[in-house]
TrEMBL record:
It comes from the Bacteria. Residues 46-240 form the Aminotransferase class V domain. This is Aminotransferase class V-fold PLP-dependent enzyme. Keywords: Aminotransferase, Pyridoxal phosphate, Transferase. It comes from Corallococcus llansteffanensis.
Length: 395
């Protein structure tokens, strides 16, 4: 992919940015549109927020629905995936002794939300331990299904895991669990824009996704999909005017979730812009964006595995989206296992080589890996620079 695409982002030219995964990065054209919307809002706040915003939200939801394969009526805007996960887990009612499954790869914040909800209702959290390295998607399905009992009520699973960057076999899990009467909450923080989505067909009870990561919308743009038959039972974390609105022209679900107090709706309103801008950067549109990002990290992984002397990748290509992990040799650092984001190698890569890439002890130190991201602005030279830096720093 040609370097000129980087000119669409305002990324620091001094930094080799290989961590789109953590917080995304928003193109300047999208930020420009957001500024215009904010100027319009502030020029007459009542006109904008009381009269104009509703059809704009409807348009944004329709564009998002078309992209993620869901009816717009089944989507609620969220500020982030963490709020989506909490909305579901704090809204559901469990009985003492109910079992809630997750995996040992689950995102820490989401696992915390599960622990708090379970503790409040006397439910039990069951953690399926996945093998590492991961031989196949089937190994994940087997590890999860082995934990199902007659008391199992819910699976909480990342669509794409954060620390290990695995594309999880969520379709197979949702299908198998539904056969046993168990619902699934998919934490798809990385899903939209990384992998094609068809939420209607997926059939998961709940799916929350970020638009500020791989869709490249401004920060604060996310959604929660709730399957139609479950909407009546779910309230937002913040109850507001929608609860007793006399309106009958839209569902209670939409009335409840569309207004959760005064906030800046411009991140949501920029979702169609982000879809258009990113999809317009390559001739093949979004399918090409996703495929080329994936091809880029797969190539980078092959190169780095070869340069680092790794005999085989940590998991099969079938589990790779726009991020991937590469094992690092043991023996560095000499210091005790550091907390996440403070790995000495991570710090040195940034401070000495100006490379932004996360290094994670996994499953625990001294085993470690780094997680590569690929977005349209990355070039093969970025990953070669990382390889050069690793060879020098690990020597
Ligand atoms: C799997 C997963 N879930 C949830 C989140 C949280 O996203 P946010 O901070 O936008 O809520 C992340 C962030 O990286 C993630 O990787």
């Amino acid at each position: 992919m040609s370097a000129p695409l980087r000119s669409h982002w305002s990324l620091d030219p001094q930094v080799i940015f290989l961590n789109h995964g953590s917080f995304g990065a928003c193109p300047t054209a999208v930020l420009q549109h957001q500024s215009e919307l904010r100027a319009r809002l502030e020029s007459e706040p009542v006109r904008f927020l009381a009269r104009e915003v509703e059809p704009l939200l409807d348009d944004a939801r329709a564009a998002l629905g078309a992209f993620v394969g869901a009816d717009a009526d089944d989507l609620a805007f969220m500020p982030n995936a963490t709020t989506g996960v909490n909305t579901v887990l704090r809204g559901l009612r469990f009985q003492p002794g109910d079992e809630l499954i997750t995996t040992n790869n689950e995102y820490n914040a989401s696992k915390n939300a599960l622990d708090v909800a379970a503790a409040a209702m006397g439910a039990k959290v069951v953690v399926a331990k996945l093998p590492w390295p991961v031989p196949s998607p089937e190994a994940v399905v087997d590890a999860v299904m082995a934990q199902v009992t007659p008391r199992t009520r819910l699976l909480l699973i990342d669509h794409i895991t954060s620390q290990t960057a695995l594309v999880m076999p969520v379709a197979e899990l949702v299908r198998r669990l539904r056969e046993q009467g168990v619902e699934t909450l998919v934490d798809g923080a990385h899903g939209p824009g990384m992998v094609p989505l068809a939420l209607r067909e997926l059939g998961a009870a709940y799916y929350t996704g970020n638009c500020h990561k791989w869709l490249c919308a401004p920060k604060g743009a996310a959604f929660l999909y709730v399957r139609r038959d479950l909407q009546a039972g779910l309230k937002p974390l913040v109850v507001s005017h929608g609860h007793n609105s006399p309106r009958t022209d839209r569902s209670r679900f939409r009335l409840d979730f569309d207004w959760m107090g005064t906030h800046d709706p411009t991140p949501f309103l920029c979702i169609p812009t982000a879809l258009r801008v990113i999809g317009g950067l390559v001739p093949g549109g979004w399918p090409e964006v996703m495929a080329s990002n994936r091809e880029k990290v797969l190539t980078a992984r092959r190169r780095l595995d070869a340069r680092l002397g790794n005999a085989s990748p940590l998991y099969p290509d079938a589990m790779v989206g726009s991020m991937v992990c590469v094992a690092l040799p043991e023996g560095y650092p000499e210091r005790p296992a550091p907390p996440l984001y403070l790995d000495p190698l991570h710090v040195r890569l940034f401070e000495e080589r100006h490379i932004e890439v996360p290094v994670t002890p996994w499953p625990k130190a001294p085993q470690r890996h780094l997680r590569l991201s690929a977005q349209l602005y990355n070039t093969p030279a970025d990953y070669e620079a990382l390889g050069d830096a690793l060879e020098a720093l690990l020597r």
